[in-house]
Amino acid sequence: MPLCAGAAVGVGAVGAVLALADLASPLRAPFTLFFLLLAPATAIGAALGRLDPLGRAVVAGAGALAADLLVAEAMLALHLWSVRGGVVAVAVLSAAALLLTALHRWPGRARRSRTP
Question: Which residue ranges does UniProt annotate as crossing the membrane (predicted)?
Answer without folding.
Answer: 31-51, 58-81, 87-106
